[in-house]
Amino acid sequence: MIPLIEDSRVPLYRQIYDYIKKEIQEEKMKAGEKLPSSRLLAKNLCISRSTVDMAYDQLLSEGYIESVPCKGYYVCQVEGLYFSKKKTAEKPVREKKNNPVYRWDFALNGIASGGFPHNAWRKLSREVLSQEGDGLFQLGDPCGEPGIRQAVAEYLHSARGVDCDPDQIIIGAGNDYLLMLLWVILGRNRKIAMENPTYLSAYYDLIHMGCQILPVGQDSQGIRVEELEQSGADMAYVMPSHQFPMGMVMPMKRRMELLKWAQSKAERYIIEDDYDSEFRYKGQPIPALAGFDQKGCVIYLGTFSKSLAPSVRVSYMVLPVSLMDTYLSLGHPFSVTVSKTDQKILELFLREGYYERHLNRMRAVYKNKHDLMVRLLKEMAHICTFSGENAGVHLLVRFHNGLTEREAVLRAEDAGIKVYGVSEYRILESKTEEDQVLLGYATLKDEDIEKAMKELKKIWEN
Amino acid sequence: MIPLIEDSRVPLYRQIYDYIKKEIQEEKMKAGEKLPSSRLLAKNLCISRSTVDMAYDQLLSEGYIESVPCKGYYVCQVEGLYFSKKKTAEKPVREKKNNPVYRWDFALNGIASGGFPHNAWRKLSREVLSQEGDGLFQLGDPCGEPGIRQAVAEYLHSARGVDCDPDQIIIGAGNDYLLMLLWVILGRNRKIAMENPTYLSAYYDLIHMGCQILPVGQDSQGIRVEELEQSGADMAYVMPSHQFPMGMVMPMKRRMELLKWAQSKAERYIIEDDYDSEFRYKGQPIPALAGFDQKGCVIYLGTFSKSLAPSVRVSYMVLPVSLMDTYLSLGHPFSVTVSKTDQKILELFLREGYYERHLNRMRAVYKNKHDLMVRLLKEMAHICTFSGENAGVHLLVRFHNGLTEREAVLRAEDAGIKVYGVSEYRILESKTEEDQVLLGYATLKDEDIEKAMKELKKIWEN
């Protein structure tokens, strides 16, 4: 007999279901045992037959019982442990780290405080969401909506000298994702040359995908092309507009040599990561390498992480026509990773001139910080020289007073200031002592830059 | 002499720069040739020296000229083709297909017209964007923000019987992406068993990543576990809540056998794709397989594509603790692919009860369509039987009047109705004639379902 509670908040059918399930789980009812017919059970419990039917249906659909036509219901064989128990006393999956707290962090990523165009974004977001078209919520083009791809193509043409068809563009949620996708398109077993030091995030992306990475040396103009040639690599990952972390701009001559390297053998490609080309404080921006590529050797990566905000998660990749063909011919492309709403907002942001105004505003903000940094670093001429100026949002500092990177970072840390050693961006651990550190200035307020740099001057002095 | 236009909209420095650049590009000025000093050129052109300096600086930074200390400026060696020319007469990258236009499409993805919770989403979006905290625009946790992971964990606990720590969850922009990521975590050379027919999108994702896929048969209860055992697979991709496309719900007994298979050997895993478990029209939802997993063998995939909208691009993956450890120990995890704004909106959507209300509303909407479909299909009992009812948003129709899948699809197409052959979801092309088609009912209006089904009845009758 099943004990039922009439005025319980648990419905009667559920009480029956729970009871029988428990009996089966605890093997009080054994596999093969016949259940009473629903008519009989209903009569015994003085309830309606449909209530019992509901309980049996649920047991049936969960597989605790089975129905044998013309015979009735039987208990199923249910093997092993199958209780959904709350696990107890499990160790926390991720240990919370006790990160030291810094007064000032010369962070290499992030944007200036107040640097996100809140008002415009909110306005456009409202605009997009109030166009109640259902189309906004159906799955879209795997490469990104035609509208945003067109807008990006126009931006690339006018701002970066890159002429591409919108159909060569793939919109994706960040460079990490686009590199994963590129790996799929290019096929396995690629040997990719990277400058050393380099942007380690891309390095790890490629390593995680199983690529072979060949570190290649660089001089003041960028990657050494002869060394690249000798490395046996069939791809090169470079940042001609502003190498990370070294900060140099690759001059035209080196760019041409690099292009020539790629063009001189089939299936050679250059990945051009143009991550912070929006910020250049002197002269016109140099056209992207992809703008000079006549033979479809350059894969161009651009992002809104630096220019808009890292949390927005929109990047884009321009593929040579042949590689886009390859991708589409694979069939079943991967679904797009950016929501249609974000794509639409960004399209309007580009199209209606917000992006240009935003970039001009941020360029001014960062130029101020840049000039301040340069002025303060000049006052430290007896301690260090610096490079990587006139572009991007970080500078490279090289000590000539005998200070090592290690010592410089530690002294700064003791003073509550975070600076970044160049060796952290090296692919192979350098055996020689480094004497360079990186200072990112995007996220610090002007007055904090002043205070922090003064302090650094003091502690790095001897 | 450089021809300057005083009242041009092109600034003077730019005219000088353009002129010299062209001279160099056209090799009228040869590599190694010395340029006039800026003082001299300024004097000759009757302009200020700083204007010439600006032009030279730009040429310098683009690498057209180089500065030799104490000597002056010299033209660089600039090899090869490097003109950013507009490419001409290129073939369009993607041919536009002439898709036939259907009056009614029994689509298998997409949501009901008006099914997106516009008002709530807009309200929450406004709320999130007006919290002007800069934190919203800094890069976040690679696995997703703690808030959304906590909210998903709570949802999974109460709705799907899955008890997991929020730190076992990774938020990602769609299942395709999460499968890519899973491939990275699990390492290469996996042999993955899939039911046949199956969700081909996942099949292609895994194929593109280089996995070996072993098709395994299924019966009315789901994947055949003996066949799975014999296949030599070390992973199985299943959809126990509602197999796509066949529509069956895996009963408890089969679930336990499957779990036992995974637990009986180290490094065996089950990928549980719980894609449309939110929609169940009879009885309580069956707890997810992951809810019974005591040994960390089940990788759970959930998505908001079906329950909210495919364009929202948010899915989640629950990893066994050991696999999450593996991922984090790789170092440098891939950046999150969902914007922080979307994560925050969705967190509030879940936390403040909007999701529950939305699901209840949609369940009612889809149940209506489901019941309508079932009623109309019952009127076609002389033509076909159907299965996959009581869950999800599609049904499977099997003809018993001699009609083949091919013929059924073609006849429907001639009448302007799109139905989907099961063979399209088979991994291996079936040699035998199929007699089954799929009808998705999420996107069609009730009156259109009625009209379309009446027409199908007529054209499938003989």
Spell out the blueprint of helices and strands.
Two copies of one chain form a homodimer.
Chain A: H1 12-25, H2 38-45, H3 49-61, E1 65-68, E2 72-75, E3 104-105, H4 118-130, H5 146-160, E4 169-172, H6 175-186, E5 191-195, H7 200-208, E6 212-216, E7 218-219, E8 222-223, H8 225-231, E9 235-238, H9 252-263, E10 269-273, E11 298-303, E12 315-318, H10 321-330, H11 340-351, H12 354-378, E13 384-387, E14 394-399, H13 405-414, E15 417-418, E16 420-421, E17 436-440, H14 446-460
Parallel strand pairs in A: 3-15, 5-6, 5-9, 9-10, 10-11
Antiparallel strand pairs in A: 1-2, 4-12, 7-8, 11-12, 13-14, 14-17, 16-17
Helix pairs in contact in A: 1-3, 2-3, 4-11, 5-11, 6-7, 12-14
In terms of per-residue confidence, which ranges of chain A show pLDDT below 50 for 5 or more consecutive residues?
Answer: 81-91
> What is the straight-line distance between the termini of chain A?
89 Å
User: Order of strands in the sheet with the most strands of chain A?
Assistant: 4-12-11-10-9-5-6
What percentage of amino acids of chain A are in beta strands? 5-15%
Tell me roughly what share of residues is in helical segments of chain A. Answer: 25-40%
Structural class of chain A: alpha/beta
Largest interface summary? A-B, 112 and 112 residues
**Radius of gyration of chain A over alpha carbons?**
31 Å
Q: Per the principal axes of the C-alpha atoms, what is the gross shape of chain A?
A: elongated
Mean of the pLDDT scores of chain A?
89
User: What can be said about the biggest beta sheet of chain A?
Assistant: 7 strands, mixed
Annotation field: number of helices of chain A: 14
Oligomer: homodimer
Total strand count of chain A, please?
17
